[in-house]
Amino acid sequence: QVQLVESGGGLVQPGGSLRLSCAASGSIFSIYAMGWYRQAPGKQRELVASITSGGTTNYADSVKGRFTISRDNTKDTMYLQMNSLKPEDTAVYLCNAVSVVGVLKWGQGTQVTVSS
User: Fold this and answer.
1) What are the strands, taking DSSP E only, across 2-109?
2) DSSP codes joined into one string, 43-66
3) CA 56 to chain centre
4) Tens of pLDDT along the chain (116 residues)?
5) What does DSSP say about strands 10-12 and 110-114: parallel, antiparallel, or unpaired?
6) Spatial separation of the C-alpha atoms in residues 22 and 108, rounded to whole Å
């Protein structure tokens, strides 16, 4: 079984930066890819960025050029560096881990609020 623990959310002013972390533990060998999703009040959950075990990344158009996803395999941790944050980035951010057959686990979520 895989466990995921997110951290790094908070309140930031527009134009600011935050770095989210998602630490994985347990059956890490089964993870093929990991991703960051977000869900704002009244909106559907949407993919923000993902990264495979081979390092291939994918980004939502709304965050390209501002967010960077990365993995540190020595720490079994995935990161999301968020720069030039906008109020519309406000949401609960969740990480997940997937195997070749489907979703293994969702994290508990961390709140990101962009406001002056």
Assistant:
1) 2-7, 10-12, 18-26, 33-39, 46-52, 57-59, 67-72, 77-82, 91-98, 103-106
2) S--EEEEEEETT--EEE-GGGTTT
3) 15
4) 899 999 999 999 999 999 999 999 988 888 899 999 999 999 999 999 999 999 999 999 999 999 999 999 889 999 999 999 999 999 999 999 999 888 889 999 999 999 99
5) parallel
6) 10
